[in-house]
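Subject: for your reference before the review

Hello V.,

The reviewers asked for a structural picture of the protein, and I figured it would be easier to keep everything in one thread rather than splitting it across files. Below is the amino acid sequence we used in the manuscript, unchanged from the supplementary table.
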Amino acid sequence: MGTFSRYKKYFIKRRKQKYKSNSKFIKMYSVIIPSLGRIKFLNELLESIYQQTFLPEEIIIILENTKECRDIEQLINKKFNIRVIFTDNLKTPQKRNLGTKIASSEYIIFSDDDDIWENNKAELTMNSLKSVQVVCHAHSKFSFDVKKFKYNLGKIKKQVSLITLIYGDNIFGGGSGIAAKKEIFLTIPFNEDLYSEDYDWWVKVLLADIKVEYIPEALVRYRIHDKNMTSNYKKIYFYNLKLFNKILNKSFILLLTFINGYLRIIIKLIIKLLLKNIISLKNFFLKGKK
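And here is what came back from the structure prediction:
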């Protein structure tokens, strides 16, 4: 068995068959929403959660402790068990970590407050969590052009190259596509000092030999608008480039340690892996620690 085949089992399964629901999976989950207080977007997200085929045990909304946010609390569409938490000057990764600590369910699904869930997102995600510890999925983008009154639905993202991933084309879906056991988030919390903390979190998860399943269906639609991170490609590019530079530096140090006469074999394998996507690249290089 080749090197890549041995390590492939630790990473994402890209199943081609249609995902089927399984109502026998009864584990409960909490939804954690770090919100910026955008009440219109937030209520649209909540409505999409209420329409799920498998409902959550609770929804935790984390808002800033400001008069504006306290005022909109009364406008939140509360059809469900919703907990609203007010915090002082916390960044998104800090809000995610806080939500994890206070969540009462065994499983957690994160969402941004401007997302829209497809009706089967939770059920498919929770069914996948029967066999793995972390799940991510494809996503689509949409925007509403006020000038042209045109609704645009983006393409479903299934696979990306190294260059496109660095530039911000995230196969994992960022914070909109993360679901896992609570213990995973407690063991590997989000880095509270980073701009794109979800990238850093995914790298740590993959390095920890945690099995991740990728659902190749767009289960979340997220908006493209002036104020969200998705539209800020320059910052995303800068921080992702720093992150991958750090990864690759460590990788080459490990390679130099294990050369011992196998230079030609290693070089051929590196060239082969460089033609694959970034997930395969990280898989080979960073498993060398063992």
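For the response letter, the relevant points are probably these. The mean pLDDT is 72. The chain has two domains: 8-230, 241-289.

Happy to draft the paragraph if you're swamped.

O.
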